[in-house]
Amino acid sequence: MLVDDLRMELTPEELSRRKLLGLVGSGCLAVFLAGSGAAIGQFMWPNVLFEEPSKVPLLRPEDVASGALTTFARHKVFLARAPGGFFAFTSVCTHLGCVTNYDQALGKILCPCHGSQFDLSGRVLGGPAPRPLPRLELTLEKGVLVADTRKFVEPDWVFKV
Q1: For the chain, which has fewer Cβ within 10 Å, the N-terminal or C-terminal residue?
Q2: Count of CB atoms situated within 10 Å of the CB of 101
C-alpha cells in the first residue's frame, strides 16, 4: 500500500527544518531583489562628472608685478608679465604630471617628483621633462585676466593688453 506523505502530519523536527529552509530562501530572494533594485537605480541615475570650469579668473593686469611669477596653486596655473604683455602656463610637469612649485630664492620652477627644472617662462632647464610647461590661452573679461586651462597656445605666445 502506498502512503501519501504530503498528507501526513509533520514532526516538530521536520517543521523547524522547513522553517529554516523557508527563511534561507526568503533571505536569498531579498538579497537578489535588493541587488536588482540597486542596479536599476544606478542605471536610472546619470553618470555625470562634475568638473570645475576651465576658465579661471586670475588678476587685473595692473596687479601683476613685472618680472615676478604669480602662482595659483588651486588652479595649477602660473601667471607672468612679459615685456610685451602677459602669459599664463600650467604648473603641471610635462614629465609625469606632478604639480611644480615656484622657488623664489632660486628663481626657478621645480618639480618635486623627479627633479625637472623650468625657467620663469616655463622652458626646461634640466631634468627628465621632455617639453616646456604648456602656455594657456589668456583673455581679458571685465578687466580681469582669465586663463582657459583647456586651451593651449604656442610656447612664445604673449597676450597683449
Answers
A1: N
A2: 14
Judged against a pLDDT cut of 90, whether residue 27 lies above it is answered with: yes
Half-sphere exposure of 41 (CA within 13 A, CB side): 6
pTM of the predicted structure, to 2 decimals: 0.67
Q: How far apart are CA 108 and CA 103, in angstroms?
A: 6
Q: Could you give the angle at the alpha carbon of 156 between the alpha carbons of 150 and 93, nearest 5°? A: 50
Per DSSP, 65 falls in state P
DSSP state of 91: -
Give me the amino acid identity at 101: N
Pairwise CA distance, residues 139 & 159, whole Å:
7
